[in-house]
Amino acid sequence: MSLDTGVLDRINDTALKYIPSKKSSKVKKPEANIVCADNLQFMRELEDESMQLIVTSPPYNIGKAYESKATLDTYISSQTKVIEECVRLLHPCGSICWQVGNHVQNGEIFPLDTMLYPIFKQYGLKLRNRIIWHFEHGLHCSKRLSGRYETILWFTKSDDYIFNLDPIRVPSKYPGKKHFKGPKVGQLSGNPLGKNPGDVWVFPNVKNNHVEKTLHPCQFPVELVERLVLSLTKKGGHVFDPYMGVGTAVVGAAMHGRAGYGCDIVQKYVDIAEARLRALDAGTLKTRPMNKPVYDPSKPYGGHR
Question: 202: buried, middle or exposed (CB in 10 Å: 19+, 13-18, 0-12)?
Fold first, then answer.
């Protein structure tokens, strides 16, 4: 599963390769590789079946600053090419997590997860969960209900896939509840490590007062990536984001001893990603803790951030 060490220089002369300092730990950390390049060009230089997890949030084709709006058919065709390469890169025991929202055209919404699903099936992937990411804040609509969720499609390449539940368990609603009858009477009825988080995840989205906010207009939170990295990869595994943005997926991988790979066509985003990795290595990067409550009634406005 080793990757070609010269890949970044061959792809782009402006490639950025970040290797965490050895001073901060006696244990050698996995390296993180980020580059300013077209994702198809970058992926074609990577080895087959080299990634345990491919996690990304591609553009939604709604005309954000980092994308050129195209017809929906053109957008789907472009996504198909990227997905095809991602399937090639995916380890037999690996997962793809494609996080998308809605394309909006003339006030009509087009749910991208349902439009992209047939493409993943075309390449033989199996859907394990359709995870709903719910958040409280966003644009306020006047002609329809305001959107407050996006979707993560979790696909695997085979039935033999990595899944570690214990690292992502959440506190049980009734942690001390015990069996009241039967052979287990008096014993705890739930797992002492907590419960399965389910397929509806509540994380604040990265708005202006979020501790992780950069200049990227559609940044997703590190804690969302952490949950996927911890549950779907093993220590030392490779994590890749073909639409890296400011490096959230690569940061989430590095935080937990995985090697992160990512690319983006916007140089300033790659620069920010590199700065975030350096801050992580220095111990100064601020992220919202994965298990921090979303709402704290004791703080002003609920302490959402």
Answer: middle
